[in-house]
Amino acid sequence: MKGKAAVFLGPGKAFELRELTVPDVEPDAVLIRVSLANVCGSDLHFWRGDAPLKLPQDGWIFGHEMTGRVAKLGRNVKTDSLGRPLAEGDRVAYTYFYPCGRCAACLNKEPAACLFKIGRRSARRSSRIFTARSPSTTT
Is 42 buried (19+), middle (13-18) or exposed (0-12) by CB count in 10 A? Predict the structure, then answer.
């Protein structure tokens, strides 16, 4: 199966639209046919070049804000992140930060302040260099 992606080639450069081979769905993964995508503020920082980024030579595919439909479920996937049944064709929206639900912030109904949500390495903010995933690693 083929899919299209806008590939980031470096700060200030135009994105390149490429047709890529969609990888097989891993057992614990979900393949989403993206309907709409959004540009995040962190994406803008990378595009402007004011955030540290180690960019692969063949570019990087942005993407953590989107909505779409489930195209295929990995064999171990039966439910969404809230434990509700999930099936091919279901509409989904990607949650970039997934709160733990157990820390003080989550228990006080402040999940945006969760110190352990996926996407954060620790409670302390540290400077990080983001390593972008190359389009060639998706085949």
Answer: middle
Termini Cα distance of the chain: 10
Q: pTM score > 0.85 for this model? A: no
> How far is CA 2 from each of CA 71, 106, 138, rounded to the nearest angstrom?
13, 40, 11
Residues 6+ apart with CB under 8 A from 63: 34, 37
Token pair for 127 = 């400077």
The pLDDT tens digits for 6-23 are 999 999 899 999 999 998
Pairing of strands 91-93, 2-8: unpaired
Residue 77 burial (CB < 10 Å; 0-12/13-18/19+)? middle
CA distances, 23 to each of 20, 40, 41, 85, 90 (Å): 9, 25, 28, 24, 20
Structural domains in the chain, sorted by start: 2-96 (3.90.180.10)
